[in-house]
Amino acid sequence: MDNQDIIVCVADDLGLRVWLERSVDGAWPIDFVASSDLNRVIKMVEATRSCLVFVAVDDAEPDRTLRVISALVKSYPNLNVVTLAKRVTQDHLLKSMRAGARDCFLSDSDAEEMRAQIKVLLTREKTPAAGGGRTEDRARPLVNLITSVSSTVDTRFLTQSYAFAAAQRRPGQRILAIDTSATERHVFYLDSNNRLTLNDLLLSSDSLDESLVDTALEEYVPGLRMLAGNLPLANLTEERNADLFIAFAQLMQMFDYIVINVDPLLADYWVKVIGLQVSRLVMAIHPVVEQAHLAREKFQSWDSELSEKCARLLLVDGYEDKIPPGLSQLEAAVGVHSLGALPLDWSNRLLAMNAGIPIHSLPRRSAFNRKLDSMLKRADERLAGGKSQGKAANTLRRA
């Protein structure tokens, strides 16, 4: 038996868990997980490389079941998702199928017949969840989450500049920048003419597709679109967690590169919901020892929410070469490698912010922009080197 034969069951009902174990009768191992923490559900599916997931129907909250199914299917399109129920109405069965479930097993089903059906489901599709449900790893977008431990660090400007620099370095790619600190008039420090916000997507994820996004979000430069992503803290409920995960999973299928400015007050929430999808988590701090210690604590608290493949990086903003602490000292204090250090270059920042244009568009040279370009160039080179090593290792293993 290989690890692709592990079954994951999302169930809160102890009775359904016991019934499933008895029905399977040891033919396949089953890992159980509660439905309340969607990120943990996804992490369990990815860790087990499961091809089959059972989702128990919660009679008290049937919509939660639909959200879990939808999140699983949008994250892993080839995954077999089957509902478990003590009883089911025709209406809920139809909704489950529309959400992506392939079948429904009732708790009074014959055990032998059920095992035969499970065997068919497991042999029907042998694409494990760890493959992302996609045929190639390269189809998975690079997701950059930029945040801080202090509101004094201007992650809006950093993320805006990061996104424009990425667009210059990645011609032909589809890039999305999300600003969780957006206002009614501005996404980042740019005038906003978009007719779509992240909140709109959460309310109507069923109608979200590439044509809608392309129509509603204008391109600021070729390939780069920006989305207002401000979500009030008071509205960040468990129900909204699933909606955000589902909407973000859909956006990941439409873009090659995503960069998100996450307000420090919202960072715990965002990391909990989409942490497993993040490729680079960039912690921006000033060269202040207290911020470095806080950043270390944050990274430690988020460790279980992030994928092992996620690069945890430090970005020092407002850095002065001749004033301690040095970059290596800050790296040691935080406990992660640095993406780089950026100078304050206040006059150019201020001019770009007030003019509502990216800093690279200024008519004069900018030390900030020059450092940012070289920093992202090094990061992309390291990423390409890591992928080459990974492919070589896979080739050796196959040999």
Automatic annotation (TrEMBL):
InterPro entries: P-loop_NTPase, TadZ_N. Pfam families: TadZ_N. It comes from the Bacteria. Residues 380-399 are annotated as: Disordered. Gene3D superfamilies: 3.40.50.2300, P-loop containing nucleotide triphosphate hydrolases (3.40.50.300). Coiled coil: none annotated. Residues 8-124 form the Pilus assembly protein TadZ N-terminal domain. This is Pilus assembly protein CpaE. It comes from Marinobacter mobilis.
